[in-house]
Write a structure and sequence with these properties.
Structural class: alpha+beta
Number of domains: 1
CATH class: Alpha Beta
Helix content: 25-40%
Order of helices and strands: HHHEHEEEEH
Number of strands: 5
Strand order of the largest sheet: 1-5-4-3-2
CATH topology: Nuclear Transport Factor 2, Chain: A
Radius of gyration: 14 Å
Length: 140
């Protein structure tokens, strides 16, 4: 797994904030073409030992397309630019409990380099995701 501190976020805060706005637009619209333009060719998502780990843009887009085709509905609950990445809070709902035992809240951290997302990490709690993204904790 890549280290957040080895990559850092190249570019300005304004550039990353613009990327975060485009990310919100793409995810909200479920626009895989727009989302794909935000990803580097070699974007990574998931740990190396996970059977469905994504190792490039095509893998990530195929995974998102599969989730959409299975009826997963997602809504962004938070989007914040940190010193190490973009924190994205999500609620995910499934059409039937047979597909997934429960709806859930999860967090993605998008690591950015040269204006593109180079890594996506999933967290089940905001505190861990905020620390990884370099977003200060706030009272919620």
């Amino acid at each position: 797994m890549a280290s957040w501190h080895n990559h850092g976020m190249a570019g300005t805060v304004d550039d990353t904030a613009d990327l975060a706005d485009r990310l919100r637009t793409a995810l909200t619209a479920r626009d895989l073409d727009a989302f794909g333009r935000l990803l580097s060719d070699d974007v990574r998502w998931g740990s190396d030992d996970h059977p469905r780990a994504c190792r490039n843009r095509s893998d990530v887009l195929a995974t998102f397309a599969r989730l959409i085709s299975e009826g997963a509905e997602g809504a962004i609950t938070e989007l914040a630019v940190g010193t190490e990445g973009i924190l994205c809070g999500l609620t995910v709902a499934w059409p039937t409990s047979a597909q997934h035992p429960d709806d859930r809240e999860l967090f993605h951290v998008y690591l950015v380099r040269d204006g593109q997302i180079v890594e996506i990490q999933r967290y089940d709690d905001r505190s861990s995701a905020a620390a990884a993204a370099g977003v200060p904790e706030v009272d919620r």
